[in-house]
């Protein structure tokens, strides 16, 4: 019985761990969703955030059903063998590489707009806003798909061998996704409003996305077993990335407290 399996200590520990990992990996997603939603008119921002996350949950559940297909994306379908470069190209690495380029391009464009044109008039700003709610949700779903590849493959690796019946493991992963998205929906709009009212935090979030985009590109090179002039590209430990983000947020929090105290 599925219920008996879910109540075992191994299943409970796996569920807690998976939920925690989904939330941690979803922090990047919330930052991007906040920036995309804040380019909409005020009355559509909360709706875009909520609908985007609900559709992201549905998208991840559908992807879980095609998990065997996603695992197959890791296998290279083309090999590049040059004297100075060797790459085993796979669909997974292509998705991560294009996702990284998209994040870097989008974040750099946003930073350029905010730094070079800080005093745009209202009409100019309206031209920069997203034209529709569906356009914002489409961007949210694209970036969630990119992040989903990594998180779903991680979930599959953690639940592999937990139960001989694959459907039981699938139910466990679906529950973890639903809980994590539910928690993110509760915090997404407060985070979005905070980012919108604090431009320095918004720039910091965009800088994080550039860093994450670079990490996705290096991850794609690592998964492709890229060898460049005799040196193999290694994976960047995600702990380093999250420590850098946490440290930067801590410094920004101190700056925020100091500014608040000086303005008091």
List its traits.
4 strands, 4-stranded antiparallel sheet, 264 residues, 78% helix, mainly alpha
Number of helices: 10
Instruction: Give the neighbour order of strands across the main sheet.
Output: 1-2-3-4
Global outline? globular
Low-pLDDT runs = 120-128
The largest β sheet comes out as:
4 strands, antiparallel
Q: How many structural domains does the protein architecture include?
A: 1
Provide an overview of this structure.
Keywords: Membrane, Transmembrane, Transmembrane helix. The chain is mainly alpha-helical. It has one domain (2-263). It is built from ten helices and four strands. The chain has helices at 2-6, 9-37, 42-65, 67-72, 91-116, 122-128, 133-159, 166-197, 199-223, 238-263, and strands spanning 78-81, 85-89, 227-228, 231-232. It has a four-stranded antiparallel β-sheet. Helix 2 packs across helix 9 (199-223) and helix 5 packs antiparallel against helix 9. The longest helix is centred in the C-terminal third of the chain and has 32 residues, at 166-197. The protein is globular.
